[in-house]
Description:
By secondary structure, the protein is an alpha/beta fold.
Amino acid sequence: MMFKTISNLTNFISPELLHTFFLTTLKYSLFKKNTIYENLRFKLLDRDFDNPLGLAAGFDKNAEVLDGSLALGFGYLEAGTVTPMPQKGNPKPRVFKIPEFEAVIQRLGFNNDGIEIFLSNLKQFRLKSRGLVGVNIGKNKGSSDLYSDYTFLYQKVEPFADYITINISSPNTPGVRDLQKKDNFKKLIEKISKFKKKPTFVKISPDISSSNLENVCDLALNEDFIDGLILTNTTISRDFLHSKPIKNSWKIFEDGGLSGPPLKKITNEMIKKVYKQTKGKIIIIGVGGISTGRDAFEKISLGCSLVQLYTSLIYKGPNVVSKILAELSQLIKKKGLKNVQELVGANIDL
Ligand SMILES: Cc1cc2nc3c(=O)[nH]c(=O)nc-3n(C[C@H](O)[C@H](O)[C@H](O)COP(=O)(O)O)c2cc1C
């Protein structure tokens, strides 16, 4: 409640400035690690997750606040997106809050300090922590070759990552989403797969065409290289914002990816579709509009093994993590399930 008031009061301050402030508080680890819920423990890919809720990519692009983020209660983190060279991203302003929907539109464009600083931060973290961290990789805006940044980064991050996410779904860097097309995707997989040593995920856009999605699912099923899919990145569609009157309507016409609750339905539809098409044989990480324990329950019940969030942290604050975990643990108990692992794909109504 208190954070909500703060969030409302700060609607007029640049979201990027607030983000920098948030990162600073996390650096000084002002938050204490939360309760462990036995029924949320999850074993996957030879790793033990305290719970299935992770921090989505984009929050900690330079792997600089890993300790602090874990202290919020997340079961794992996804750092990045990192690119080979540092880059500033798109001109500001480029992040827009739409409070009516607790949504965000952003076109950051992979602003980050580059792989060298990222790795030095991650190595520091590895010296003192056993926390689970995946690394999300992308391409520099200026690189003309669609594939080489990915093969380069994959090899660089592999020794230090619990898993690697190949981000081919960001709407804010030209060319990235072209990698979802059938021939390009196959070529990308062929080029990287020989370097595989760690669990590997591909992050997909909710705007992908049905035929490209089917192709991605087929390859995910048939290529050992891909362990699973992350569903989904942000959407360039604005269809989900027109159901209510909008005060700051100019913001919805800003270019960029939309995140938060308006994304939930389309992400969940995609999760359903992919779970059905792959017959539950690949791992799905669900992300898009999770702000309550019910939201997390729903995605896991539809077939996700792990889930992630970002935008609800902006609107509900750091305590959202512990609230979601408490509610999810309760719901699992209430439905008579032994643990969260039993919920995956169980299709249980709330
Ligand atoms: C400010 C912001 C920056 C983001 N940056 C990235 C990024 O660098 N890489 C990426 O794969 N996804 C990025 N995302 C997308 C999130 O990881 C996530 O897929 C999406 O926001 C949906 O989840 P949410 O509704 O919980 O925010 C970003 C999202 C936001 C709001």
